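Work Package 3 (structural annotation) set out to generate three-dimensional models for the target panel prioritized at the project kickoff. During this period the team completed the workflow that converts sequence records into discrete structure tokens, so that structures can be stored uniformly alongside our sequence database. As a representative example, we reproduce one entry of 93 residues exactly as it appears in the project archive.
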Amino acid sequence: MNLEDYMLPCLNKQLLGVDCPGCGMQRALHLLLHGEFVAAFQMYPAIYTILPLFALVIGNKVFNLNINQRLIIILGIATVALILINYITKFIN
């Protein structure tokens, strides 16, 4: 079983021919799961902020953990910034 066979295609790229801000996230997660940390960062830099952000939000909502909202906001801002920077650099290069 190969995980790459089950990845979802980007509809934005298929229909419009342009990458979306989330393009590369699945491949980066795949690389991360295979221990290729640098390649995952190069593919989608926000992977290292979005995973802890999801974990904190889910932990806060589902398990009623008392997680500081300031930490969630900072991680959210960092994630959005990295996504936008990555998206802009894709168009420049």
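DSSP finds five helices and no strands in the chain.
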